[in-house]
Amino acid sequence: MTLKEKLDQALLHYAARAGHGVQQPVRAVLFDMDGVLYDSMPGHARAWQGMCRENGIDCDPDEFFGYEGMTGAATIDLLFRRQFGRAATPDDAKRLYARKSELFAAQGTPIIMPGAQSAVASVVAHGARCVLVTGSGQGSLLTRLNGDYNDAFQLRVTAYDVTHGKPDPEPYLVGLQKAGVQAAHALAVDNAPLGVQSASAAGIFTIGVRTGPLPEGALLAAGADIEINSMNECTILLSYLL
Ligand code: CA
Fold first, then answer.
1. Cα 191 to averaged position of ligand 1 atoms, centre (Å)
2. What is the pLDDT of residue 92?
3. 61: which of 21, 28, 177, 230 is 20 to 30 A away, CA to CA?
């Protein structure tokens, strides 16, 4: 099946579940950050592992790919409940997330995801808003965004803007609100099952981009309307949708 045929199917799937199609003009595209704009997930996994080691928390190196999209506080709470049989206090969460962020930043600059700059540039060229919707509170990356993406992301939803992180729809709903755009006039791009679940539940046409070690079909199973394999494919898809 060509990408265009896959898209036509996906649009029908979306119309059936949302009760309306993707409405023209598309006014906003909501992008997740880690694993979409930056190839940063392996570095995050290493930083989580290091933080766990220092704090007597057992972990599996691969488990952090499964938590992708959750806020740092939610991930720390999950680790605490498993290891210590209690919730993490706000102070635990703050302290350990700060340490994890430090270990992440110490690894140097993460690579910009191949194809992501042209995807973002195509949205800007079309006159639609770009909105960042991330569970991250990683200051080092959030600061780099302006330079790497030509100030396209003035509108941002980060860990600090929501009560309930992904997979709750709140982050993507807040993103729509910040852009002043209805779900029908928006698209979402996310690489993680929890993120895709959040965007889909917010009623947005959801592009799942498989940039990491997930099995084929995992993002469709989480509720993506279409699953693609790279941000280069995303740029092609946007050329049909915008
Ligand atoms: Ca992600």
1. 5
2. 96
3. 230
pLDDT digits (tens, 9 = 90+) for 102-119: 999 999 888 999 999 999
DSSP summary character for residue 127: T
Residue 37, SS3?
coil
Ligand 1 centroid from CA 37, angstroms: 9
- What is the layout of strands, in order, in the sheet containing 226-228? 155-157, 129-133, 28-31, 186-190, 205-209, 226-228
Q: Please report the beta strands in 100-225, taking only residues with DSSP state E, as ranges in sequence order.
A: 129-133, 155-157, 186-190, 205-209
Distance CA 173, CA 169 (A): 6
Rounded CA separation 177/199 (Å): 13
CA of 193 to the centre of ligand 1 (A): 9
- Which uninterrupted H or E stretch holds 226? strand 226-228
Give the distance (Å) from ligand 1 centre to CA of residue 132: 11
The residues near 140 (Cβ < 8 Å, ≥ 6 apart) are 101, 104, 105
- Cα 29 to its chain centre, rounded Å, is 12
Determine which helix (DSSP H) or strand (DSSP E) holds 227, and give its type and residue range: strand 226-228
Cα gap 196→183, rounded to integer Å: 14
- Percent of residues, the chain, with pLDDT higher than 90: 87
Apex 24 CA angle, 150 and 204, nearest 5: 75
Q: What's the length of the chain? A: 242
Separation of 143 CA from ligand 1 center, angstroms? 17
Q: Report the pLDDT value the prediction gives residue 76, as an integer from 0 to 100.
A: 97
Tell me how far the alpha carbon of residue 32 lies from the centroid of ligand 1, in angstroms.
6
- pLDDT number for residue 61: 80
CA 195–ligand 1 middle distance (angstroms): 7
